[in-house]
Design brief:
two-stranded antiparallel sheet, five-stranded antiparallel sheet, alpha+beta, 198 residues
C-alpha cells in the first residue's frame, strides 16, 4: 500500500518496505518516505476531465528501518538518502537523531521541505507554497509513517501483504546476494513463492 501526499511541485510517498542486504543477506523493514518532484502535465480533455499526476523524479528518501533480527522499534537500520542521481539514491547517511528520535527527526525534515529539496540540488520554483502546505500536513504524514513502521508489521505475511507490489525488486535483491547461504529463507518465503515479473 502506497500513501501519496501531492502538492504544487512535490509529492511525498509513504509505504512499508522490505530490504535484503546484498552484502550479508540480513533483513530490514520499516517505513520508507520519498520526496518526489512533480512533472507538469498538459491540460487534457474538458474542464471536468481527470488530469494526469506524475511524481517520478526522486529527490530525497528516508528509510526508518529495523533489522528483522534486531530489537523491534530500535531503528538499528534507520538512515536517509539526501540526494539522488537520476533514480539512484546516494549512499546511506546515518545520523544519531534518526535512530534516537526518528519521528521528531522526520517532522523536522517535513517542516522545511524547501531546504530538503535545495540540499538535494533541486531548488523549488515556489518554495514557500509547498513548505507551508507540507509543514501543515507534517503531523498527518508522520502519523501515516508511524502506521507503516516495522513495529506495526508483526509477521512475514503482514510484511508481504504491505510490499507484494515490490516482489520484483525483492527478487532482484535475491538474485544479487553475495552470501545467499546466510539468507533466512523462512522469513522471505512469501516473496520466494511469488513469481518474479517478466
Amino acid at each position: 500500500m502506497l500513501h501519496a501526499f501531492v502538492y504544487n511541485e512535490t509529492a511525498i510517498l509513504v509505504r512499508h518496505w522490505f530490504e535484503i542486504s546484498l552484502k550479508d543477506s540480513h533483513l530490514e523493514h520499516g517505513v520508507r518516505l520519498e520526496l518526489r518532484l512533480r512533472e507538469p502535465q498538459p491540460q487534457r480533455g474538458t474542464e471536468s476531465a481527470a488530469q494526469r499526476i506524475v511524481a517520478d523524479q526522486p529527490l530525497w528518501r528516508a528509510d526508518l528501518f529495523d533489522r528483522v533480527d534486531g530489537r523491534a522499534g530500535a531503528f538499528e537500520a534507520a538512515h536517509f538518502h539526501p540526494r539522488f542521481t537520476g533514480v539512484e539514491p546516494c549512499e546511506r547517511n546515518w545520523a544519531d537523531e534518526i535512530k534516537a528520535t526518528p519521528w521528531d527527526w522526520l517532522y523536522d525534515q517535513l517542516s522545511d521541505i524547501a531546504a530538503v529539496a535545495a540540499a538535494a540540488g533541486v531548488p523549488l520554483t515556489d518554495p514557500a507554497a509547498d513548505t507551508e502546505q507540507i509543514r501543515a500536513d507534517a503531523p498527518e504524514i508522520v502519523a501515516v509513517a508511524q502506521s507503516r513502521a516495522a513495529i506495526q508489521c508483526g509477521s512475514k505475511q503482514q510484511c508481504y501483504a504491505w510490499t507484494q507490489d515490490a516482489a520484483p525488486t525483492v527478487h532482484l535483491m535475491l538474485d544479487l546476494l553475495k552470501q545467499p547461504d546466510l539468507l533466512d529463507r523462512d522469513r522471505v518465503s512469501p516473496w520466494l513463492a511469488a513469481q518474479p515479473a517478466g
